[in-house]
Amino acid sequence: MSKNKNWYIPLTIVLIFLGLLLSLQFRTQKLLANSLETQKTEDLVVMWKNLALKRSKLLDEITNLQKQLSTLQATSNQGSNMEQTLSENLERLQMSSGIVPVEGPGVTVTITGDAPLLYLDLVDLVNELWASGAEAIAINEHRITTLTPIADKENGSSIYITVNNEKLLYPIVIKAIGDPHTLEKGLTFTGGLIENLSTLYNINPIIKKEENLKLPAATLSPWKYTTKATQAADNVTKKNQAN
Prior knowledge:
This protein is an alpha+beta fold. The protein contains seven helices and eight strands, in the order H-H-H-E-H-E-E-E-E-E-E-H-H-E-H. 54% of the residues lie in helices and 19% in strands. The strands form two sheets. The chain has a five-stranded antiparallel sheet with strand order 3-2-7-1-8, with helices on one face. The radius of gyration is 42 Å and the shape is elongated.
């Protein structure tokens, strides 16, 4: 029975300790509440003025911080716009130079193996497509750029066309990205290139409009002789121009 009553002792101690804490907390809160009442009117006025002054300084600091934030946001937006513009220009340069794959609507021009096609005819077709507004061109998955060589090569008694120094196999398929209608009309107008190829040489390319064409990136050959001009060379050039 004595063991069952042992739990009363720690419980009583805890309750007494809790009562003391509550009493101390109440007295502390009452003292804090009465502290302002014991102040003189002059002291309260001074305290109020100090608080008002601090509040005014804080409001000024907030205003300055808001102005700084607005300035930083405006600068950030200008930087973002400039970065976006540079990124778009870089993307256009990459696409036009052929160093990235591209896709879009356009036309395909297919020439079968029975056509007596010469490399100059192929060059004419490519140039006609450029003139008609083509934005990107590939021949049998060879992306055409300003550095792409199109030529012919002899092999005994036969001659074959090469692109990027590789033999071009038939059927030859030219892919051109641009406005399909404009590209087609640029090739097929009366008296144009396609009509001349058909009438004079019995070469009859098959032209087909396409909703989406995918062209690979170009295989660019390293420049062997051209390097960036030095500052001294630029100065000499300017001096010669001035004279």
